[in-house]
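Appendix B, record 7
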Amino acid sequence: MSLLKKPTDILPELIIRILSLFSVIAIVFIFYFIFSKAMPVIAENGIGLITKTGFDSQVRAGFSSSDPVLEFGMLGLIVGTLLSTAIALAVASVLSIGAAITICELTPPKAAALLTAFVRLLASIPSVVFGLVGVMTVVPFIEEHFITVDMQIEFLDFFQMSGKSLLSSIIVLSFMIAPTIISLCINAINTVPEDQKEVGFSFGMSHFRVIWKIILPSARSGIIAGVILGAGRGIGEAIAVSMVCGGVGYVPQLFSHGIAALYTPVLPLSAAIINKSEAMSVASVESALFACGAILLLFGALLSIGARLVEKHLRRSAGYDD
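C-alpha cells (predicted):
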C-alpha cells in the first residue's frame, strides 16, 4: 500500500489550509485596522479611557470645537454594556434552559417539533424588529406603570427618567438572546443517549431527578456553549439596544439609587457607535468610536478564550485528555 497521498486527497486539504490562512489573515487585519484607528484616543487617555466618564459631552465638544479633542472617558459605556448584557444573560439563561427542558422532556413529540421550529424562527428575526417592538411596547409600558412623577422629580438632578433605560435594554436583550440559547440547549439535550435516561428510571428516579441528575450534567457543555454565544450576541448588539437604551452614557448607581437605577438611561458600547456615528466626520470622534469597537473586540476575545477554558475543564472532568 502506497504511503503517498493521492492528488484527490491533497487538493481538498490544500484548499482547507488556504482558506484557514485567509481567515487568520482577515482576523489579524480587522484587529490591526480597528486598533490603528483607535490608537490616537487610546494613546492620549491611557487607562483613563476606561476609568473616566463624560463621553457624551466630550463627543459634543469634539464635534463643535475647531481644535482636536482627544480626551474621552468610556466608563459609563462599559458599565452599561456589562450590566445590560449580564442581567439579560442571567434572565435569558434561566428561562431558556427551562424552556428547552420543557420542549424536549415534557412536550409531546409533534408539539416539540413545532415549538423547536418556532424558536429557530425567532432566533433568525432581525434585531431591528426586536428594537421596534421594544420602542412600541416595552418603553411605553415601563414609563406608564413603573415611573411616577415623584420619581422623576427626585432623580432630576441625576438623570431624566423615561421608559428608555437600562431596564428596557435588559428586557429587549433577554428576548433577543433567549431563542439562540434555547435552540442550542435543545440540541444539547437531544444528544443525551436514551439509555442513560433509562438507567435513571430503572433505579426508580423520578422524571425530575433524571432531568436534574442525568440530562443536565450530560448536556452541560452544549448549554454552556449556548450561554456564551448568547453573551456574545448581547455584548455586540447595536441596533435594538440603541433604540431603547436612552442614549446617554450614565453609570447606573445600583447601590445608592436602588431599584431606580434600572430606569437610568445608558449607552452601551455598540449603541454608542450607532448613536454617535453622525459625528465621525471629526477625526477625534472617529478615533473614539473605533476605541469603542476595540473594547468590544477585546470582550469578544475574552469570551472566546473563556469558552475554550470551559471546554477544556469539562473535557478533563469527563476524563478526556487534551
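Remarks on this record: The chain has one domain: 37-317. Residues 7-45 form the longest helix (39 residues).
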